[in-house]
Design goal:
four-stranded mixed beta sheet, single chain, alpha+beta, elongated, Ribosome hibernation promoting factor, Double Stranded RNA Binding Domain, translation regulation, 110 residues
């Protein structure tokens, strides 16, 4: 499985990269069909007019390519690690739903 990690307005530190690889490997360990994964981390530099702080400005997006399907999720938070955690939770739900759909539509062996 190939994981591509990109940063937009953000440098990818080894700690962030290790965190992503660990969480995604744990998430897809029971699914061998994953062709590729793309993760894009973005830091938005817009400030809130009232508080003068950026709120939910760390954005994590991911695309997981499976045979016949493509899963996409996006999460944002005040901290990059929190947004990665929220992203993996969303993708876990999608993968679980995808696996259930595959089990329902399995052709019967004759």
């Amino acid at each position: 499985m190939q994981i591509t990690i990109r940063g937009h307005h953000l440098t990818i530190t080894p700690a962030i990269e290790e965190n992503i690889r660990y969480k995604f490997a744990d998430m897809t360990k029971h699914l061998d069909q994953v062709n590729s994964m793309q993760v894009k981390l973005t830091k938005d530099h817009q400030l809130d007019k009232r508080s003068k702080k950026g709120s939910a400005n760390h954005i994590a997006e991911a695309i997981i390519r499976l045979p016949g399907a493509e899963l996409f999720a996006q999460a944002s938070a005040d901290d990059m690690y929190t947004s990665i955690k929220r992203l993996t939770e969303k993708l876990k739900r999608q993968l679980h739903k995808h696996r259930k759909m595959q089990q329902v539509y399995q052709p019967l062996a004759v």
